[in-house]
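Checklist before submission:
- one chain only
- standard amino acids only
- sequence pasted in full

Submission:
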Amino acid sequence: MKVDLFDFNLPESLIAQTPLKNRSDSRLMVLNKETGNLRHTVFKQITEFLRPGDCLVLNDTKVLPARLFGVKEDTGAKIEVLLLKQIEDDQWETLVKPAKRIKAGSEIVFGEGKLKATCLEEKEHGGRILQFHYEGIFYEVLESLGEMPLPPYIKEQLDDRDRYQTVYAREKGSAAAPTAGLHFTKELLEEIKKMGVHIAFITLHVGLGTFRPVSVEEVNEHEMHAEFYQVSEETAQLLNQVKNEGGRIISVGTTSTRTLETIASANNGQIVASSGWTDIFIYPGYEFKGIDGMITNFHLPKSTLIMLVSALAGREHVLHAYEEAVKEKYRFFSFGDAMLIV
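Returned file contents:
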């Protein structure tokens, strides 16, 4: 299967650069995965498409202010560091720019010495293992010095860093937001609960592999980066109960989808409490075992995310929906509009 099968024309003007003032004012396209039929509405009307007994699965990961700007201690050269994942204690896997300036043994200083890092190891594509040194609590130092790691296609500054967090974010560890959840307000979630729709939480810490372009020609040659996930006993029991009672499991975002499918694939369709690393790659031909529907944003051409959506709703249905989205001037990517697939 060629990667080019998932290409479409996207005018740059449709890439949302800033979030809307009100989260749930974004538009919502509803796609019937069986027929390909489309409906256009606004996100706050999502209640019309949910049923009592359904369950929404939300990813409660919290984005770290993981972009740091410092200087190389011996030369004063400007260095940008992006935290990817914690290896142990104060050792982190990072991306460094310009990487050629940072070798094993190099020292980087941030915030006039409030935070320092020593390079322990060089990895490919600008990856570096850094050991951090500081006084106090690392996450508090990070809060004071770090910036939100917005995706590379967003050029505008973010005035309010909370707008790149979901209202239910609580487990620190992501390098990017699970953006399908950005459309929910606390009030809308309460309204959904009052309808008799269950709300369940899982955690998947989003890595930068999310934004990495697919550089191969054949879909099955692409390698996914592993991301850490966690599902509690309480969530597992609720999801199995919903399935047994005939409710629909609707995942909010590709991260929730990949977590549930990782677990369901290994357990004959059952959800069990577990944690670990997943590099599951979902593309057409995949048979879904954990979810019935999904809320997601509009994704990059030829990305692994549009492949996942195509696996759920059919490539032709999805590409037709995307053509319609371009024609109707929907907003794309992280701060863009949403799609509900049921």
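Reviewer check: The chain has a mean pLDDT of 95.
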